[in-house]
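Researcher: I'm preparing a figure for a lab meeting and need a structural model of a single chain. I don't have an experimental structure, so a prediction will have to do for now. The sequence is pasted below. Please return the structure as tokens so I can convert it later.
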Amino acid sequence: MTDDARLGELLRREADTFPTSSAPVDAVLRRGRSARRRRTAAAVGAVVAVTAWAAAVGLTDLARPAPTTPPATAPVSTTPPGPVPSAEHPGPRTVSPYEVVGIGHGHSMALLPDGRQNFVVGAGDIAAAVERAKGSLGDNILPETLSSGRSGTGENVLYFGAFRAKTVPSRIELRFDSGRRHTAEALTLPGHPGWGTYYVFCDASTADTGYTVTASTQDGEVLIGQHFDGTASP
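Model: Understood. Here is the structure written out token by token.
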């Protein structure tokens, strides 16, 4: 029923109730307006309620994590891990290409990425020698082998060389024919160059003695072992 039809029905009822007097039009209009206001308020309330429910649903959707596609499983490497360095045998120290590294007793060493097993070692300032060595092929030693040399005949004799191996050794040791043993320090370049250098200072009593250089893993497995006689030279 429309508002106008309802208003007419109210007027007729009032007329039937009070047939001898004029119809209370003002009172009926007030009741009609009041009823309309109530219906309008109820309608607005319904809209508010629906809007609030929709907002709640929207907030719930926002709070719920969006579905994500599971990341692709990374391929699993089948290459066994290399030996884990320890505090006692930390393995080679990584140095920057061309970096002049002090190794003690006034000597320095630098590793170059140019060529193969390319390094410079010497006393004093070796910067000019490093520049001259750029672009050379280096020692080019065979896989799974070592090179070795020594320098000096005084109080401190420097033993040095390069290693080339698929597995980076955790320890490099010099064992002299006399039975004395010395652990060498080692250097390598960033990444996996497959080679590095070693050095160790010994006293003059070792100068004419043969020795064996052994590169091994952390658990003692020998990777490379080579003997050099007492006349080895740089």
